[in-house]
Amino acid sequence: MPKATTLNAAAPFSSDELRRVAASMSILSRSFTLSRPHELLLQEAGVRLDRAGSALLFKLRAHGEPARVSDLAELLGVDTPTVTRKVQQLERLGYVAIEPDTEDKRAKRVSLTKSGEKTIERIMVAVNHRLSRLFEGWTKEEVTLFSTSLDKFAHALTNEMENDRD
Fold first, then answer.
1. 94 — alpha (psi -120 to 50), left (phi > 0) or beta?
2. What is the H or E stretch that residue 100 is in?
């Protein structure tokens, strides 16, 4: 395997490399925004939940503690009434619990229930199955390199998006 080099402004990326990255990102983006792959994933997980519901459960889990509806709306990039309706639906399904906010009596905090946690775990098992299928024919080293590179790229993208908000 060739020695990795760090590229910077003094050694710009080739247009061909950047086009390949952009084309691959387009495919990745499409695979995450199309409804059918998401429906198949949830079906494999045995979960009856829409994409918005699963996104909310994952954001709530990543948040790590009970969250205000307004905080979830900001994390998801949607308005508060949309999240309120989805939280109410998830509460009826038993995936989340809604409790009063101890700091602000007008606000509510949303937390995952055991059923919500189990639902996330079932989805993650299906995600892992899908990724395993996609990585068929790859070596462990190739998957490790891809994972490391993608993680590094995701951090750079996250930093850029956070800086754009300021």
1. left
2. strand 96-100
This prediction's pTM: 0.77
Distance (Å) of CA 12 to CA 40, 49, 157: 40, 45, 18
DSSP designation for 3: P
CATH architecture of the domain with residue range 30-134: Orthogonal Bundle (1.10)
31 vs 80: CA distance, rounded Å: 27
Amino acid at 77: G
Smallest CA-to-CA distance from 59 within 36, 39, 86, 41 is with: 86
3-state secondary structure of 154: helix
- Is the pLDDT at 38 greater than 90, yes or no? no
DSSP-derived secondary structure letter, 16: H
The answer to whether 95 and 112 are in contact (CB under 8 A) is yes
Domain range annotation of the chain: 30-134, 137-166
